[in-house]
Amino acid sequence: MVTPQPRNWYGSTSGATPRRPVSLDPVLADEIEGAPDPAEHVAIAHATAWAFVDGGRANPDDPQRAELLESLVRLGEAGDIELIADMWANAGPLTLPGALWRMYAIREWVRRDSGTVTDAYRRGLSGTDAPTVIAGLADAPEPAGVARSVDQILEGVYDGELDVAFDRASALLTILAAGIGANASSLAPTDTDRSAQILRRADNLVRTAGELAHAARLSREGTLE
Length: 225
What we know:
It is built from ten helices and no strands. The chain has helices spanning 26-32, 38-57, 65-73, 80-88, 96-112, 114-124, 132-135, 143-159, 162-187, 192-221. The chain is globular, with a radius of gyration of 18 Å. The protein starts with 25 loop residues before the first helix and ends with a helix.
């Protein structure tokens, strides 16, 4: 199986064995891999995405809700990132499955390379238009704090408003893109190839930030599919 990777934002792999908080319909699960009809695969992507979100939002007074939310946030760890990729990675960015894939890809990147992300965030804060209030991170975060904040952003998908979660993720990526862009500029005089590579990464982040912001608007309008 060839698994799409989250925008090539990170390097090595690591992670703990995940828990599966929401069970898929067996028929849907059997059809996820190798669905011959692209339209059928799209339908499965949308069905599974809404199943996870609806399952996470159900029973808000359940005493085990905190454990459920933690399990949903950790869904992409270890082998489950392949399941998420198979279901959602090829969905359009302005759909629920496409937006969810981007949210989990962000978390995976932060989980694997929190030091680099933290450095980029700190550098990005120097931008005058950095949406720090929306992102909701500390002004001088540590790697563990960044990871916790990203988990809280993703938790908002299941325990808050979808548009707020997507807007927060968009703001975070905007700040990170500014920081990575600053790194690229500092390298340009001595290593043009490396600078160009890093700048492309920043451009990817800007594009994804825009996609998530657009998905947030669609969610507010009630038109996110």
